[in-house]
Amino acid sequence: MELDIGKPIMEKNDTIAQENRKLLDEKQVFVINLMASPGSGKTSTILATISALSEKYKFAVIEGDIASQVDSLKIKETGVPCVQINTGGICHLESNMIKKALEPLDLDNIDVLFVENVGNLVCTTDFDLGENVKVVILSVPEGDDKPVKYPNIFQVADAVLLNKVDTMCVFDFDQDAFEKSLDDLNPLAPMFKISATKGEGVDDWASWLDSEIESFRGRN
Amino acid sequence: MHEFSLMDSVLSTVEESARQAGALRVLSIDIVIGDLIQAVEEAMDFAFEALSEGTICEGAELNMTFVKPKSVCQDCGCEFEHDVFHNKCPDCGSIFTTLIQGKELYIDKIEVDMPDEPSNDQT
Q1: Do B109 and A5 touch (CB under 8 A)?
Q2: DSSP A23
Q3: Would the ipTM clear 0.90, i.e. be above it?
Q4: Does A6 reside within a domain?
Q5: Do B5 and A148 touch (CB under 8 A)?
Q6: What gap in Å lies between CA A154 and CA A160, rounded to an integer?
Q7: How many domains are contained in chain A?
Q8: Is residue B32, in this structure, part of any structural domain at all?
Q9: Residue-wise pLDDT tens digits, A114-137
Q10: Host domain of residue B29
């Protein structure tokens, strides 16, 4: 006997993501899903961004890692509320993990929530978490060919950050090739060159993010 | 290995539908996957075998249909198939295009083994 199903495989994840989005919209919390490889500087970028915008907004962070509290301890040292998710082997965050991580957070006292996804350029791409924007970081040591090798994550990005630009002189990174491949994949996404630890370019990126947050708050 | 999460979701939906129909076991599962999902066929097969063991889906045939990306140009209306890298309009060069296929990810149909109904019993 044949049964027609016609059901989206991601239905459960998408439904919970929509519930997260509705709750966060009601609480006026702007959410950034930050995706990148391990070691690309996600946590440093979060800290640099918070530092640039902390006078205007109250931040919180959800950290996603396979294991450990390493990143959440770094965030908590700065006094920013942070919830650590340990996925225990799952290579990406899913919306039900975010739903649970939101519970201990005081959403009435948060303007902007960074979600640091598990370090991975593939699996994180297709899971909606309930975010407002997806931001992808590539760091210079990873090489200029990553958009060609992992196209989807760059296609879904609302903005792309090229981090560790202060190390450009040490690595054979072809900026023209990188920008050309990004332009092919996602011509509408802005790209910011930053050094999260040295501060270079952070203001331009923070200013773009600020305008996105302003526009979100204007809509809600 | 997001294929494991995808397959876990496939199996829970299939098992629920099969149980609701009163099926004894699942014979085949047809799923449709857009190329932009980046699901690897071999990894889906592997995840299916690993996760279906001991369930009513064990031993079922898994059929996957892959769909090529297609977009429509917002400026000139041209519809065009493309690879996963390039989605600019081939006619007018516009970057304002909307994807209309290539991100599918759904269970189309399943075939199940039902208990014999009395009317079918010829003995």
Answers
A1: yes
A2: H
A3: no
A4: no
A5: no
A6: 7
A7: 1
A8: yes
A9: 999 999 888 888 899 999 999 999
A10: 2-68+102-114
A70 contact B CB<8A: no
Q: What is the structure's pLDDT at B118?
A: 55
Report the relative pairing of strands A30-36 and A112-116 from DSSP bridges.
Answer: parallel
CATH number at residue B37: 3.30.2320.50
Q: Which of A7, A151, A187 sits opposite B95 (nearest CB)?
A: A187
Does residue B86 form part of some domain?
Answer: no
Residue B50, both tokens:
């690993």
Closest in A1, A9, A188 to B107, CB measured: A9
Report the domain count for chain B: 1
Inside any domain, residue A106: yes
Q: Which residue stretches of chain A have pLDDT < 70?
A: none
**pLDDT tens digit sequence for B85-99:** 888 899 999 999 999
Q: Say whether B106 and A9 touch across the interface (CB within 8 A).
A: yes
Residues B7-14, mean pLDDT to the nearest whole number? 93
Q: Is the pLDDT of residue B38 over 90?
A: no
Whether residue B75 lies inside any domain: the answer is: no
Q: How far apart are the C-alpha atoms of A40 and A131, rounded to whole Å?
A: 21
Interface test with B, best of A87, A94, A126 (most B CBs within 10 A): A126
| pLDDT reported for residue B117 | 57
Judge whether B121 lies within some domain. no
Give per-residue burial for A57-93: e unless 16+ CB within 10 Å, then b: bbbbbbbbbeeeeebbebbbeeebbbbbbbbeebbbb
Whether A218 is in a domain gets the answer no
| Confidence band of B123 (pLDDT split at 50, 70, 90) | very low
